[in-house]
Design goal:
Layout: E1 4-5, H1 13-18, E2 49-50, H2 51-62, E3 96-104, E4 107-119, E5 122-131, H3 134-138, E6 141-150, E7 156-165, E8 169-177, E9 180-188, E10 197-199, E11 205-206, H4 207-215, E12 224-230, E13 236-250, E14 253-269, E15 273-276, E16 281-289, E17 296-303, E18 306-317
Parallel strand pairs: 1-2, 11-12
Antiparallel strand pairs: 3-4, 3-18, 4-5, 5-6, 6-7, 7-8, 8-9, 9-10, 12-13, 13-14, 14-15, 14-16, 16-17, 17-18
Length: 321
């Protein structure tokens, strides 16, 4: 796996004043975070992964070729025990339209809008976003992400994500079938022929349905939930621990919140599955509202250069169209 990179926060005035950072080939990650990872310098290695890639894949989770292989997918015995693949009884959030902002060390670099609607027993979550303000003058990113899952059991059906950069476009499709997950990633203009790839691990969820799975659980203080989530490039083992109830200020207003601690490890699949820690990803914290909606309020990830954040700007609950 290519190393995580981040621009030098001391040696570059661009970085400290405009959040000069970027992800490459990033997967989607919690429904409201999926599309707003920031930026990549032109001289960054094309195969490297940004710390923002991990951040957004990780967060999108809680609310994100090779030849086709014929073997049946299994849960590797080398992984820790997963939580039962059964949703809890907490009801799904109401249809909504919301906006979020993202940044580093308090400076805003990107914005996104997210919506949820219900149709024929399915939930459809759509996110649109991109770089914002001074950051956009240096590096452009516009992205969309749509995820569909079943309301009855919160099982994912598909997701489609498009990332438009100044000089390339990346489209990722994933389809969840009874035998496991299949995905296709296409790059233009420099990408070659693409093939559908089977992800050899189960049970697995996309990051959107994983978020709804987590929020459906009792979330008692001290509870831990483990599952496998797929942001778009590799599967991750995600561990969510409920720390406590507390208040958090969002746009100057105190909100009752549930504080969650997030840990994740990349799953590398070979003859056996192995877990890989990320050397520069430290800890992640998410606050969701402690009410009937359990809506995402704020998320922070501590990496070696400081805290990266995502925060709710506004939410409107809708009558389903």
């Amino acid at each position: 796996m290519a190393p995580c990179w981040w621009p030098d926060p001391v040696g570059s005035g661009i970085v400290t004043s405009t959040l000069g950072f970027h992800r490459q080939d990033a997967g989607a990650a919690w429904y409201w975070l999926a599309t707003t990872a920031a930026l990549r310098p032109a001289n960054a290695p094309t195969k490297s992964k940004s710390c923002f890639d991990l951040f957004f894949g990780f967060l999108l989770f809680i609310f994100s070729g090779a030849s086709i292989l014929p073997a049946a997918a299994q849960t590797p015995s080398s992984l820790p025990s997963l939580s039962p693949d059964l949703p809890g009884s907490f009801p799904i959030v109401r249809p909504f339209s919301a906006t979020f902002r993202f940044g580093w060390s308090g400076v805003e670099a990107a914005r996104a809008s997210a919506s949820l609607k219900v149709d024929a027993g399915r939930a459809i979550v759509t996110v649109k976003g991109g770089t914002h303000g001074m950051a956009r003058t240096l590096w452009r990113l516009d992205a969309t992400h749509e995820s569909v899952f079943l309301l009855q059991n919160l099982k994912p059906q598909r997701f489609v994500q498009t990332e438009q950069y100044s000089n390339r476009r990346i489209t990722t499709q994933a389809v969840f079938k009874p035998d496991t997950l299949w995905r296709l990633r296409e790059r233009t203009p420099d990408g070659g022929p693409s093939k559908w790839k089977r992800v050899e691990i189960a049970p697995i969820r996309d990051i959107v349905s994983a978020m709804f799975f987590v929020r459906s659980q009792p979330l008692a203080n001290g509870e831990t939930i483990r599952l496998i989530a797929y942001p778009g490039d590799s599967p991750f083992l995600v561990e969510v621990k409920v720390l406590r109830r507390e208040t958090v200020k969002i746009r100057g207003v105190s909100r009752n919140a549930i504080r969650l601690e997030m840990r994740l490890q990349r799953i590398e699949i070979g003859k056996t599955a192995t877990l890989k820690n990320h050397t520069k990803f430290r800890t992640g914290t998410v606050w969701i509202s402690d009410d009937a909606d359990r809506f995402p309020l704020r998320a922070e990830v501590d990496i070696f250069v400081g805290a990266v954040f995502a925060e709710l700007d506004e939410v409107k609950y809708l009558k389903n169209p």
